[in-house]
Amino acid sequence: MSGTSRALGQILPIAMAALLGTAAPLVLAQAEAVPSQALVLPSGPAENTRITEAYARLVARDAWFWAWPMVNMYNRRLAYAKAPEQGLIGGTLPIAPHNRLTMLSDYIKPDQRSIACPNQDVVYGAGYLALNDSPVVIQIPDFGKRFWVIQLSDLRTESINGLGVMYGTKPGFYLVVGPNWQGTVPKGITRVIRTQSNAAFVGPRVFQDDTPQDRQAVQEVIQGINVYPVAEYDGTMKRQDWRKLPVFPKRDDARGETRWVRPDVFFDQLPAVLDLAPAVAGEAARYAQVLAVIAAAQKNPELKQAMIDEAEKADRELIDPLLQFRNWGIELPHHWSTITNGAHFGTDYFTRTAVAKSNILVNAPNETRYFYQDLDAAGMRLNGATAYTVTFAKGQLPPVKGFWSLTAYDSAHFFVPNPLNRYSLGTKNQDLKTNADGSLTFYVQAESPGADKESNWLPAPKGADFSLFLRAYWPDDAITKGLWTPPAIEKRAVDTSS
Length: 498
Known about the structure:
The structure is a single chain. The chain is of the alpha+beta class. It folds into 3 domains: 3-32, no CATH class; 86-245, Immunoglobulin-like (Sandwich); 325-495, Sandwich (Jelly Rolls). It has helices at residues 3-20, 25-32, 53-81, 212-222, 263-276, 284-298, 301-319, 349-359, 477-480, and strands at residues 87-89, 93-95, 102-103, 122-130, 136-140, 148-153, 163-164, 172-177, 191-194, 199-207, 226-229, 247-248, 330-331, 337-338, 368-373, 386-392, 404-410, 424-426, 440-445, 457-459, 466-473, 489-495. Strands 13-14-15-21-17-18 form a 6-stranded antiparallel beta sheet, with no helix packed on it. A 5-stranded antiparallel beta sheet has the order 3-4-10-6-7. A 4-stranded mixed beta sheet has the order 9-8-5-11, with no helix packed on it. Helix 3 (53-81) crosses helix 7, helix 3 (53-81) packs across helix 8 and helix 6 packs across helix 7. The termini are far apart. This is DUF1254 domain-containing protein. Residues 1-29 form the signal peptide.
């Protein structure tokens, strides 16, 4: 029987069955059994293929957007690699050599510009891991009843593993290993965490009340947090007083965040970045495409300059607008917005880049839910020339198992100095006053609302745009299921412009 006849013999019964409305499972099975030669197609242009400038610009623009968070993390990682020892940049920001950690000993200071949207509810720590050099041990002390979470994420800003009170994590020693590690697990290790790449970020967050007593009490706990190469592991808890650290010079005094992603070096760095962040399902062609264009640009200066030019345009047109919360996120009542896939972005490149531009390194949704606000109840831009109130009805405080806070930021998402040195209000504040009906009102304005209301005053920048940011750490079901959202930001009948 010829190949043509055999094919017709398989197709005709199927066609007849379709016309008659009957099934033909046996015939279908026979059709599927016909052997075929699978085609293996290239995932990018063939080597040495000439490409047009317009195509190179297209690929450059696209890559600038989806790879922006990874290059951002890569350059932070490079900065940490240059640290001579554990210390503080300008006395404000923790920095440490790879496979080490540095903790702050109090709230982050308001003048730091390394990372946008910091909060003053927790004691932060930070470190970058190079797991190709060595596995590392993360040392977890006993936090008692204090809220804590340790973020472990990759260059994509994806969460790698859950460590925190919401996971029931026990005190002990946690070994973090790279994807290809085949060594022996030392005795006494509580659990092994295997990553998908050799580059990772580790960032503890430990809650602290805004009182002198708790500032002292938290020291005993955080001195037990540590990260070090496995060769230094001996089964004993290593303690360090984080109040005694060297101070390194500040990088810059920019009003906005340190510029971690630069068009002039972006495409030179991208191959190394993609090597440290292997493609996930569906990304192989994307990776191959941009790498092929970069290879072509390395041989053609004019092509490379065109790509840099396109990256500069994309930065202005695509990335810069994402600093503003009102331009992205899931819309909620009263002009609030949120995200539900923080640190689990997958191939949601838009949300990942929006978060990286405006408030990089968010926690996973079950660890923290974030609510963003640029506008008042009438949809007008929040501005310190106007006074506002935020009133939580009785029984309607953010439902959390951890803590919550409302923070005010300037238009660049940093703190603005104020007479109280106060940048957030919430669980940490022990002297908040409730109203007669049991509700809680915050006064968000540039000038004091009066001595009787000052405990509930959240200072805003005078005469300038600002944003509000509500954090709900270890959110309850009412938040995770979308049953609770923040109240409206209402104008007060007071004008602070005078």
